[in-house]
């Protein structure tokens, strides 16, 4: 999987340099497929991920670390950008509303969807969490 992602990035670089539309299209298709696969794996193994112990956080299980996004539905316009952005499949579109369906898939201390996806200030996180040796 990791090698596939690296190879795909190399394809993109070559396509950009040579300005080859077909190669760019191949990259885009590959990227979409790999991303969907990656997300589906995270969602499928959610129960295991919740039980995973984090050495760097005093061996606390992921489900006991309260780090995940919250959506303010007063501000959310249901644009779906957070669903499209998050590589871990945390957000899901459900009955015409985006929900945080897989909260513990969120990467601890990541706030990427706040800075790169949501333009409406609808996503928030708690205070960042310190590692046990810091
Ligand atoms: S902070 Fe990162 S991992 Fe967590 S939901 Fe947002 S994009 Fe996904
Ligand atoms: S990006 Fe923000 S506004 Fe759009 S669906 Fe997600 S939370 Fe709602």
From TrEMBL:
<dbReference type="Pfam" id="PF00037">
    <property type="entry name" value="Fer4"/>
</dbReference>
<protein>
    <submittedName>
        <fullName>4Fe-4S ferredoxin iron-sulfur binding domain protein</fullName>
    </submittedName>
</protein>
<dbReference type="InterPro" id="IPR050572">
    <property type="entry name" value="Fe-S_Ferredoxin"/>
</dbReference>
<dbReference type="InterPro" id="IPR017900">
    <property type="entry name" value="4Fe4S_Fe_S_CS"/>
</dbReference>
<dbReference type="GO" id="GO:0016491">
    <property type="term" value="F:oxidoreductase activity"/>
</dbReference>
<dbReference type="InterPro" id="IPR017896">
    <property type="entry name" value="4Fe4S_Fe-S-bd"/>
</dbReference>
<dbReference type="GO" id="GO:0046872">
    <property type="term" value="F:metal ion binding"/>
</dbReference>
<keyword id="KW-0408">Iron</keyword>
<feature type="domain" description="4Fe-4S ferredoxin-type">
    <location>
        <begin position="67"/>
        <end position="96"/>
    </location>
</feature>
<dbReference type="GO" id="GO:0051539">
    <property type="term" value="F:4 iron, 4 sulfur cluster binding"/>
</dbReference>
<keyword id="KW-0479">Metal-binding</keyword>
<feature type="domain" description="4Fe-4S ferredoxin-type">
    <location>
        <begin position="97"/>
        <end position="128"/>
    </location>
</feature>
<keyword id="KW-0004">4Fe-4S</keyword>
<keyword id="KW-0411">Iron-sulfur</keyword>
